[in-house]
Specification:
Blueprint (H helix, E strand, L loop, with lengths): L7 E5 L3 H13 L3 E5 L5 H7 L4 E5 L7 H10 L5 E6 L3 H13 L5 E5 L4 H8 L1
Parallel strand pairs: 1-2, 1-3, 3-4, 4-5
Helix pairs in contact: 1-5, 3-4
Length: 124
């Protein structure tokens, strides 16, 4: 057994079908998926084991992705961040800019519907 760290990927999206696709891709790449279906559960799940990569839907009920980007920055998150949006791409770009300004470096934006090839590329 190697002491190699198995990368954790936290997927926060209110759409179960999209989460299932990302989980399959993450597992297929030998990484550990951690699912969050409700943005209200994001902080507790994050604190239970900080991920190496966060896949974050920008538009969700009650708490939006911008608020969670802000929370990640305040928590000192330094991993990669993949912002996903099925809505106006300007919204995702605004979240990307905010993440950059708050010191989160490796930010990528994907527009839904996301191709499996694009998803694998940003997670690699």
């Amino acid at each position: 057994m190697s002491g190699e760290h198995r990368r954790r990927v936290m997927i926060c999206d209110d759409e179960p079908d999209f989460r299932a696709i990302v989980v399959d891709v993450v597992r297929g790449m030998g990484m550990e998926p951690v699912e969050v279906g409700r943005p209200e559960d994001f902080a507790g799940t994050y604190e239970a084991g900080a991920p190496d990569i966060v896949v974050l839907d920008i538009v969700m009920p009650n708490i939006d992705g911008l608020e969670l980007v802000d929370w990640l920055a305040d928590a000192g998150y330094r991993g990669r961040l993949v912002l996903v949006s099925g809505y106006n791409p300007n919204y995702a770009r605004a979240a990307h800019t905010m993440a950059d300004l708050k010191g989160i470096a490796g930010v990528t934006v994907l527009q839904k519907p996301v191709s499996l090839a694009d998803l694998r590329a940003v997670l690699a």
